[in-house]
Write a structure and sequence with these properties.
The protein is mainly α. It contains 17 helices and 5 strands. The strands form 2 sheets. It has a 3-stranded mixed sheet.
Length: 426
């Protein structure tokens, strides 16, 4: 007994030492704040950085002196980091972390916007918010698909393939029928087909779920790429010219400053994505189905003894996840672009990161997806104003944000206990 107790005490002592996670994060924020104050403040110009509340340069705007703003917001980030380093109560951790990150980003933007060429030294906030939601949409649907699977105990690495198959099916059948609604249904079925393969091999044949997910991603890339070259590339008018969903404006709400034009003049995918977040969150934590799903993901043996059909519930939830991800893929081809080979471009893996960053919660996944969507939109904006930052680095920005968020900001998270563990009824 004494030989095993000593290591436990030692581990506890290390966990409760000076360098707790809040202090480590505080040190990083302090360094970022000092960097922003010194570097961004020196590179910013005396020109005002304008943040307009419209889609253009005109209208109401918040103007900040470039150099002063970069220094001031850098100091805010450093102060937030210093407070965490000093050891404030844990309940302030999230607030100070948010303040520090926002301060660093605003300091960076003051530099970039003030240094932009004349006529482009403004940031249209309506476009930024709208672009953030548009770019986050496939991540939202993909992360929700991950929540449905992993809360049931099945690891869903195949989100990339589900999104891709949904995008392809929506484009193909939408083009053949000339109907966006047929395309939407076909996209959902396309995503569900990938999920069906995942469910059969992972649940019925007990294949390693991570390996199976990778294989399904490669399968989706191969199948859609082959059919694209044989059908869509040779006859795009017939096979790759799907109609698009238009924007739906909601009266009164569309006139709310900033958020109105960005959120309430969107297409069906925006409204459906936000609605699904609310519905799945409510169902997961407030209904019998949600209780059974969470019990199957945590302790399937106990759930089975209480009469829950573990395997049947896992099959249903994995298929439902495929339907959701397939619709997310259609947000590309039925709203924005024509289908191209491997057009998802790793968004499925970012959605998986959003799932982890959001701690396997629908609302958390939404916020994480918006964070990554903002990083993507910011890269696009900086390229448009002729930023001095190399374009290759701007293209990396969303993926760097993903790595930093998952590695540095999530901290200790615990997946559902039975996640990735096959269940064999005894």
């Amino acid at each position: 007994m004494s030989t095993t107790a000593v290591p436990d005490v030692a581990v506890a002592a290390v966990d409760e030492g000076f360098w707790t996670r809040p202090r480590k994060v505080g040190l990083v924020l302090l360094a970022l704040g000092v960097l922003a104050t010194g570097l961004f403040g020196a590179l910013a110009t005396g020109q005002p950085a304008r943040f307009t509340l419209s889609e253009t340069e005109g209208g109401a705007a918040l103007e900040v002196h470039g150099t002063l703003g970069a220094i001031l917001f850098g100091v805010v980030a450093a102060a937030a980091g210093g407070a965490l380093l000093a050891g404030v109560p844990k309940r302030w951790f999230t607030v100070l972390l948010g303040v520090g990150l926002v301060g660093f980003v605003l300091s960076f933007l003051c530099w970039q916007v003030s240094a932009a060429p004349e006529g482009r030294n403004f940031m249209p906030m309506v476009n930024i918010v709208r672009g953030t939601f548009v770019l986050a949409l496939p991540l939202i649907f993909g992360a929700l698909a991950g929540v449905l699977c992993e809360r049931s105990g099945v690891v869903n690495v195949a989100i990339e393939g589900q999104l891709l198959m949904g995008a392809f099916s929506g484009a193909l059948f939408g083009s053949l029928t000339g109907s966006v609604w047929v395309g939407l249904v076909a996209a959902a079925i396309g995503g569900a087909l990938i999920s069906l393969l995942l469910a059969v091999f992972a649940i019925r044949y007990l294949v390693d779920q991570v390996v199976m997910g990778v294989v399904l991603n490669l399968l989706a890339v191969g199948v859609t790429g082959f059919l694209y070259e044989r059908l869509m590339q040779t006859n795009a008018d017939k096979y790759n010219s799907a109609p698009r969903f238009g924007n739906w404006e909601i009266p009164l709400l569309k006139d709310i400053p900033l958020l109105g034009p960005a959120l309430f003049r969107g297409n069906i995918f925006l409204y459906l994505g936000l609605l699904l977040v609310l519905v799945i969150h409510f169902a997961l934590f407030r209904t019998r189905w949600g209780l059974r799903t969470r019990s199957v993901g945590e302790h399937p043996t106990a759930a089975d003894t209480l009469g829950v059909k573990v395997l049947r519930l896992r099959y249903r939830n994995v298929l439902l996840a495929g339907l959701v991800a397939g619709i997310g893929g259609a947000s590309y081809t039925l709203a924005l672009y024509s289908f191209t080979k491997n057009m998802i471009g790793g968004k499925g893996f970012i959605a998986l990161a959003a799932l982890i960053f959001g701690r396997w919660s629908p609302t958390g996944a939404l916020l994480a997806a918006l964070f990554f969507g903002f990083a993507d939109q910011l890269a696009t904006y900086l390229g448009a104003i002729g930023s001095s930052i190399p374009s290759q680095f701007l293209a990396m920005l969303p993926y760097l944000a993903t790595i930093l968020a998952v590695a540095g900001l999530v901290g200790r998270v615990r997946a559902p206990a039975a996640d990735g563990k096959p269940y064999v009824k005894g």
